[in-house]
Amino acid sequence: MSISNTNEPPVRIFVATAGGIGCQLMAEALGRSGWGFSVVGYACNLMGVRMAVKEDLVDIALIDSHLKDGSKAGFDATRSIRSSNSKVRVVMMVDASEGSLTVDVFRAGASGIFSRDDSFDLLCKCIRAVHNGQVWANSKQLQSLIHALAQAQPAQATKNLGKNGLTNREQGVVRLVAEGMTNRDISKQLNLSENTVRNYLFRIFNKVGSSNRLELARFAWDQEEAKGHREAVVE
Protein backbone atom coordinates (compact mmCIF):
# COMPACT_ATOMS: atom_id res chain seq x y z
CA MET A 1 0.00 0.00 0.00
CA SER A 2 1.21 3.53 -0.79
CA ILE A 3 -0.08 7.04 -1.16
CA SER A 4 1.15 9.80 -3.37
CA ASN A 5 -0.29 13.31 -3.54
CA THR A 6 1.55 15.75 -5.77
CA ASN A 7 -0.40 18.62 -4.20
CA GLU A 8 1.36 18.12 -0.89
CA PRO A 9 5.06 18.70 -0.23
CA PRO A 10 7.02 15.55 0.66
CA VAL A 11 7.51 14.60 4.29
CA ARG A 12 11.17 15.29 5.01
CA ILE A 13 12.66 12.46 7.07
CA PHE A 14 15.96 12.10 8.86
CA VAL A 15 17.02 8.56 9.82
CA ALA A 16 19.30 7.62 12.71
CA THR A 17 20.30 4.03 13.50
CA ALA A 18 23.41 2.40 14.97
CA GLY A 19 24.70 1.01 11.67
CA GLY A 20 25.63 2.92 8.52
CA ILE A 21 24.35 0.21 6.20
CA GLY A 22 21.11 -0.01 8.13
CA CYS A 23 20.67 3.76 7.85
CA GLN A 24 21.26 3.71 4.12
CA LEU A 25 18.92 0.80 3.49
CA MET A 26 16.15 2.39 5.55
CA ALA A 27 16.62 5.72 3.79
CA GLU A 28 16.43 4.08 0.36
CA ALA A 29 13.34 2.05 1.30
CA LEU A 30 11.49 5.12 2.61
CA GLY A 31 12.40 7.12 -0.48
CA ARG A 32 10.99 4.39 -2.75
CA SER A 33 7.93 3.66 -0.64
CA GLY A 34 5.47 5.79 -2.59
CA TRP A 35 4.22 7.43 0.63
CA GLY A 36 5.48 10.88 -0.31
CA PHE A 37 8.68 10.74 1.75
CA SER A 38 11.94 12.54 1.08
CA VAL A 39 14.91 11.36 3.15
CA VAL A 40 17.10 14.40 3.74
CA GLY A 41 19.88 12.61 5.58
CA TYR A 42 20.92 9.95 8.03
CA ALA A 43 23.41 9.45 10.85
CA CYS A 44 24.64 6.81 13.27
CA ASN A 45 25.40 8.95 16.30
CA LEU A 46 24.07 11.73 18.48
CA MET A 47 26.28 14.40 16.95
CA GLY A 48 24.96 13.65 13.47
CA VAL A 49 21.37 14.00 14.68
CA ARG A 50 22.08 17.32 16.40
CA MET A 51 23.74 18.77 13.32
CA ALA A 52 20.85 17.69 11.07
CA VAL A 53 17.99 19.21 13.04
CA LYS A 54 19.78 22.55 13.36
CA GLU A 55 19.33 23.09 9.61
CA ASP A 56 15.51 23.19 9.96
CA LEU A 57 15.02 20.88 6.97
CA VAL A 58 13.47 17.95 8.86
CA ASP A 59 9.81 17.16 9.53
CA ILE A 60 10.18 13.68 11.03
CA ALA A 61 13.22 12.18 12.76
CA LEU A 62 13.13 8.37 12.71
CA ILE A 63 15.49 7.43 15.51
CA ASP A 64 16.56 4.03 16.75
CA SER A 65 16.83 3.75 20.53
CA HIS A 66 20.30 2.23 19.89
CA LEU A 67 22.91 4.48 18.27
CA LYS A 68 26.69 4.15 18.07
CA ASP A 69 26.96 6.26 21.22
CA GLY A 70 25.18 3.58 23.26
CA SER A 71 22.04 1.52 23.78
CA LYS A 72 20.06 4.53 25.08
CA ALA A 73 21.60 7.23 22.88
CA GLY A 74 18.36 7.51 20.92
CA PHE A 75 16.72 8.97 24.01
CA ASP A 76 19.44 11.61 24.28
CA ALA A 77 18.98 12.42 20.60
CA THR A 78 15.23 12.79 21.08
CA ARG A 79 15.65 15.09 24.08
CA SER A 80 18.15 17.14 22.09
CA ILE A 81 15.69 17.55 19.22
CA ARG A 82 12.94 18.50 21.61
CA SER A 83 15.03 21.22 23.24
CA SER A 84 16.49 22.66 20.03
CA ASN A 85 13.74 22.35 17.44
CA SER A 86 10.14 21.90 18.53
CA LYS A 87 8.89 21.59 14.93
CA VAL A 88 10.60 18.22 14.39
CA ARG A 89 8.50 15.23 15.45
CA VAL A 90 10.28 12.06 16.53
CA VAL A 91 9.36 8.42 15.92
CA MET A 92 11.53 6.11 18.02
CA MET A 93 12.15 2.50 17.02
CA VAL A 94 12.53 -0.08 19.79
CA ASP A 95 12.67 -3.85 20.16
CA ALA A 96 9.38 -5.59 20.90
CA SER A 97 10.91 -6.75 24.18
CA GLU A 98 11.45 -3.13 25.24
CA GLY A 99 7.79 -2.45 26.01
CA SER A 100 8.80 -1.20 29.44
CA LEU A 101 10.52 1.74 27.70
CA THR A 102 7.24 3.16 26.37
CA VAL A 103 6.92 5.78 29.11
CA ASP A 104 10.57 6.80 28.72
CA VAL A 105 10.11 7.19 24.95
CA PHE A 106 7.25 9.66 25.36
CA ARG A 107 8.92 11.42 28.28
CA ALA A 108 11.97 12.00 26.09
CA GLY A 109 9.70 13.88 23.68
CA ALA A 110 8.83 11.36 20.96
CA SER A 111 5.43 11.52 19.28
CA GLY A 112 5.50 7.89 18.22
CA ILE A 113 7.00 4.57 19.28
CA PHE A 114 7.45 1.81 16.71
CA SER A 115 8.40 -1.83 17.24
CA ARG A 116 11.11 -3.18 14.92
CA ASP A 117 9.08 -6.39 14.63
CA ASP A 118 6.23 -4.58 12.85
CA SER A 119 5.99 -4.29 9.07
CA PHE A 120 7.58 -1.62 6.89
CA ASP A 121 4.16 -0.61 5.56
CA LEU A 122 3.00 -0.02 9.14
CA LEU A 123 6.10 2.12 9.72
CA CYS A 124 5.08 4.29 6.77
CA LYS A 125 1.60 4.66 8.26
CA CYS A 126 3.18 5.57 11.59
CA ILE A 127 5.34 8.29 10.03
CA ARG A 128 2.36 9.74 8.16
CA ALA A 129 0.21 9.71 11.31
CA VAL A 130 2.86 11.46 13.40
CA HIS A 131 3.44 14.02 10.64
CA ASN A 132 -0.30 14.76 10.75
CA GLY A 133 -0.06 15.53 14.46
CA GLN A 134 -1.14 12.18 15.89
CA VAL A 135 0.49 10.09 18.62
CA TRP A 136 1.46 6.54 17.60
CA ALA A 137 1.78 3.40 19.74
CA ASN A 138 0.55 -0.17 19.30
CA SER A 139 -1.94 -1.77 21.68
CA LYS A 140 0.72 -3.45 23.82
CA GLN A 141 2.66 -0.22 24.19
CA LEU A 142 -0.54 1.65 25.07
CA GLN A 143 -1.32 -0.92 27.75
CA SER A 144 2.16 -0.44 29.18
CA LEU A 145 1.66 3.33 29.18
CA ILE A 146 -1.76 3.16 30.83
CA HIS A 147 -0.38 0.82 33.50
CA ALA A 148 2.43 3.28 34.21
CA LEU A 149 -0.04 6.14 34.46
CA ALA A 150 -2.17 4.18 36.88
CA GLN A 151 0.86 3.55 39.09
CA ALA A 152 2.04 7.17 39.00
CA GLN A 153 1.50 9.83 41.65
CA PRO A 154 -0.69 12.24 39.67
CA ALA A 155 -1.05 14.83 42.42
CA GLN A 156 2.64 15.69 42.18
CA ALA A 157 2.56 15.72 38.39
CA THR A 158 -0.33 18.17 38.26
CA LYS A 159 0.61 20.39 41.19
CA ASN A 160 1.75 23.26 38.99
CA LEU A 161 -0.85 23.00 36.24
CA GLY A 162 -2.71 26.04 37.58
CA LYS A 163 -0.01 28.24 36.07
CA ASN A 164 -1.40 27.31 32.65
CA GLY A 165 -4.80 28.79 33.47
CA LEU A 166 -6.41 25.56 34.68
CA THR A 167 -9.02 25.87 37.38
CA ASN A 168 -8.96 23.60 40.42
CA ARG A 169 -11.71 21.48 38.89
CA GLU A 170 -9.79 21.18 35.61
CA GLN A 171 -6.66 20.17 37.51
CA GLY A 172 -8.75 17.48 39.19
CA VAL A 173 -9.87 16.19 35.80
CA VAL A 174 -6.25 16.08 34.60
CA ARG A 175 -5.28 14.13 37.72
CA LEU A 176 -7.96 11.52 37.04
CA VAL A 177 -7.02 11.27 33.36
CA ALA A 178 -3.42 10.65 34.49
CA GLU A 179 -4.70 7.81 36.66
CA GLY A 180 -6.06 6.17 33.51
CA MET A 181 -9.75 6.83 34.20
CA THR A 182 -12.28 6.96 31.36
CA ASN A 183 -14.79 9.78 30.96
CA ARG A 184 -17.41 7.58 32.58
CA ASP A 185 -15.14 6.86 35.56
CA ILE A 186 -14.39 10.57 35.93
CA SER A 187 -18.07 11.48 35.78
CA LYS A 188 -18.81 9.06 38.61
CA GLN A 189 -15.82 10.21 40.66
CA LEU A 190 -16.71 13.90 40.37
CA ASN A 191 -20.48 13.45 40.23
CA LEU A 192 -20.68 15.08 36.80
CA SER A 193 -22.34 14.07 33.55
CA GLU A 194 -20.12 12.55 30.86
CA ASN A 195 -20.97 15.48 28.60
CA THR A 196 -19.66 17.88 31.26
CA VAL A 197 -16.46 15.85 31.53
CA ARG A 198 -16.02 16.05 27.75
CA ASN A 199 -16.48 19.81 27.91
CA TYR A 200 -13.86 20.05 30.65
CA LEU A 201 -11.42 18.03 28.55
CA PHE A 202 -12.10 20.20 25.51
CA ARG A 203 -11.20 23.33 27.50
CA ILE A 204 -8.16 21.63 29.05
CA PHE A 205 -6.84 20.52 25.66
CA ASN A 206 -7.17 24.09 24.35
CA LYS A 207 -5.42 25.58 27.38
CA VAL A 208 -2.42 23.24 27.40
CA GLY A 209 -2.18 22.65 23.64
CA SER A 210 -2.98 18.92 23.74
CA SER A 211 -5.29 16.98 21.44
CA ASN A 212 -5.64 13.66 23.26
CA ARG A 213 -5.05 11.89 26.56
CA LEU A 214 -1.51 10.77 25.75
CA GLU A 215 -0.41 14.30 24.97
CA LEU A 216 -2.08 15.51 28.16
CA ALA A 217 -0.10 12.89 30.08
CA ARG A 218 3.10 14.11 28.43
CA PHE A 219 2.18 17.65 29.45
CA ALA A 220 1.78 16.51 33.06
CA TRP A 221 5.15 14.76 32.90
CA ASP A 222 6.74 17.96 31.60
CA GLN A 223 5.35 19.84 34.57
CA GLU A 224 6.69 17.21 36.96
CA GLU A 225 10.11 17.28 35.31
CA ALA A 226 10.24 21.09 35.40
CA LYS A 227 9.26 21.04 39.06
CA GLY A 228 12.07 18.59 39.78
CA HIS A 229 14.59 20.88 38.09
CA ARG A 230 13.39 23.87 40.09
CA GLU A 231 13.64 21.96 43.36
CA ALA A 232 17.16 20.82 42.46
CA VAL A 233 18.22 24.43 41.86
CA VAL A 234 16.75 25.57 45.17
CA GLU A 235 18.50 22.79 47.06
Structural features:
Rossmann fold; single chain; five-stranded parallel beta sheet; 235 residues
Provide an overview of this structure.
This protein is an alpha/beta fold and 235 residues long. The protein folds into two domains: 11-139, 3-Layer(aba) Sandwich (Rossmann fold), CATH 3.40.50; 152-234, Arc Repressor Mutant, subunit A (Orthogonal Bundle). It contains eleven helices and five strands. The protein has helices at 20-31, 46-54, 73-84, 102-108, 120-131, 139-151, 154-157, 168-178, 183-190, 194-208, 213-234, and strands at residues 11-16, 37-43, 60-64, 89-94, 112-115. Strands 2-1-3-4-5 form a five-stranded parallel β-sheet, sandwiched between helices. Strand 3, helix 3 and strand 4 (89-94) form a beta-alpha-beta unit. Helix 9 (183-190) packs across helix 10 (194-208). The longest helix is centred in the C-terminal third of the chain and has 22 residues, at 213-234. The protein is elongated, with a radius of gyration of 19 Å. Residues 153-160 and 229-235 have low confidence and may be disordered.
Straight-line N-to-C gap: 55 Å
Query: DSSP helix count?
Result: 11
- Largest sheet, if any? 5 strands, parallel
Write down the overall mean pLDDT.
Answer: 80
Order of helices and strands: EHEHEHEHEHHHHHHH
- CATH homologous superfamily (4th level) name of the largest domain: Response regulator
Looking at the overall shape, the CATH architecture of the largest domain is 3-Layer(aba) Sandwich
Which CATH top level class of the largest domain fits? Answer: Alpha Beta
User: What would you report as the Rg, rounded to the nearest angstrom?
Assistant: 19 Å
Based on secondary structure, the structural category is: alpha/beta
Poorly predicted runs of 5 or more residues: 153-160, 229-235
What is the molecular shape?
elongated
